[in-house]
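Entry 12.
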Amino acid sequence: MPVLGPLSFTLEVPSLDAGVKFYSDAGLVADVGGAKEDNVARLRCPGQDRDSIILLGGFARKRLHHISLRADRLDDMAVAAGAHGGKVVPAPQGFEDNGLWVEDPHGMLIHLSDHPADPELAAAEPFQINSPGLTVRKRRSAVLPSASYAPVRPLRLGHILVFSPDVPASVAFMTDALGMGLADRAQDIIAFCCARRDSDHHVVAFAKSPGIGFHHGSFQVNDPDEVGRGGRALLAKAGRGDWGFGRHTIGSNFFHYIQDPWGSWFEYYSDMDHIDDYALWTPTNYEMADSLANWGPEVPHDFVHNYETDAEPFAAVRPEAVTA
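Predicted 3D structure (tokens):
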């Protein structure tokens, strides 16, 4: 059971200040720079003692640097990576030579680390719905005045979606070399990979594009209300594009995406399908109509556009991409 879950993603960015502001507005806690880390920002979920996002500043444009996954049996994975079209590589400059660094068949860099599991999240207040024939909430209001709520804070990084020029080949590497499972897919356009035990529906996902790149990181919040409330608040501060509030077919989660300063996305989610034992899960090949959402607003024109493959970087202000 080599890959156990997500740890973080690292991006090269042109403006560290813009990235820190965006992700701080999203509810993450920033640690910027230091004696040995000039032009580096580390962001983590409140209450966690590890990074979920690392930003490397001073680059001409945004680019995926690498993703980090929690794993075990690293020696076996080093052998399997080479046997399935990838390769073991040295740690990149500025990063510790710990764990295992590999490139997949398309050159995407992955850091695999035998990192301890995060502590279990505290149980949240159940999200109760009064439905026909089942009244579970009585003598109280479900919703308080809006001013009563604190800003939404992400609880943990749930999954990372990246671009791939060949989605089936990327999935084959993750499953055959890194020991993940294919949870579900939509033709050969998008696919979702999980850990084989006690996993969210997906840990790493792939969307088809001319090249590799970063699409979004997805962060869990307590309930659908926090998805909607957090999404609207971040959109008001970011002023770019968004997609949501809605619900996915694949994974079943409620979502709201907000566009970052470089054209990729940040997702709040709640109520994700859980795969306790992959041996008891049957993957589905969905039609493209269900590849993105079961219901929600119209998809932004550039939601699945990989700006990392363009000749010119994403323009920081795109009013036409902002939806009400």
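Annotation: The radius of gyration is 19 Å. Residues 224-238 form the longest helix (15 residues).
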